[in-house]
Amino acid sequence: MSDADDYKAKMKAVQKAHQDKQRELRDPEKGLVLVHTGNGKGKSSSAFGVIARALGWKQRVGVVQFVKGKWVTGEKQFFDALGGVDWHMMGEGFTWDSQDKARDIAAAEAALAKAREMMVSGDYDLIVLDEINISLRYDQIAFAPVLEALEARDSRTGVILTGRNAPQELVDYADLVTVMEEVKHPYKAGIKAQRGVDF
């Protein structure tokens, strides 16, 4: 058998296995819960990529940012110019900047209330809860009301929760979990965050 014939036979087997698997799959007829976590860069960036995909299908999208305050970011400017994303910057900035736990708790609780309102409305195909895992990590909000909000969401609504240190309960609950692993980061080499890459 030639290399070309051998390759064709292998790809036919791969194709059949893929087609067999596709026949077994089902549509859950509900929005999925995705978690982007880990110590590597790209958790929010990946969520914004999913937003672009959803907008390509003319879906309605919302973002609630739990930590990032009134930063000027490339993604916010892009989606503001493009339109189609309801964007709520609810945070007070990084915890080490505010240094006021009561204020951080109030901001996180307000963000969760806004997120819940959007999730139960039935108006959205996708909602990104950006950096919510940070609010969970620092006990600004408890996991129980987050789970309650996810459970109460409209069946059409998928949700992406981003941030380091996703709690195990959330990992167990989610339909898809991606852990970004840091291998190398310019910050450790003394390079500051770059416009267009980091924000």
Describe the fold and architecture:
The chain has 199 residues and is α/β, with parallel strands linked by helices. It has a single domain (30-189), classed as Rossmann fold, CATH 3.40.50.300. It has helices spanning 3-24, 43-56, 74-82, 95-98, 101-121, 132-137, 143-152, 168-173; strands spanning 33-37, 61-65, 85-89, 126-130, 158-162, 176-179. Strand 2, helix 3 (74-82) and strand 3 (85-89) form a beta-alpha-beta unit. The longest helix has 22 residues, at 3-24. The model has no long low-confidence stretch (mean pLDDT 91).
Number of helices: 8
Rg, nearest Å: 20 Å
> How would you write the strand order of the largest sheet?
3-2-4-5-1-6
Q: What's the CATH first level?
A: Alpha Beta
**Fourth-level CATH superfamily:** P-loop containing nucleotide triphosphate hydrolases
Question: For the report, how would you describe the main beta sheet?
Answer: 6 strands, parallel
The residue fraction in helices comes out at: 40-55%
* Strand-pairing-aware structural class: alpha/beta
**What string gives the helices and strands in order?**
HEHEHEHHEHHEHE
Please name the CATH topology.
Rossmann fold
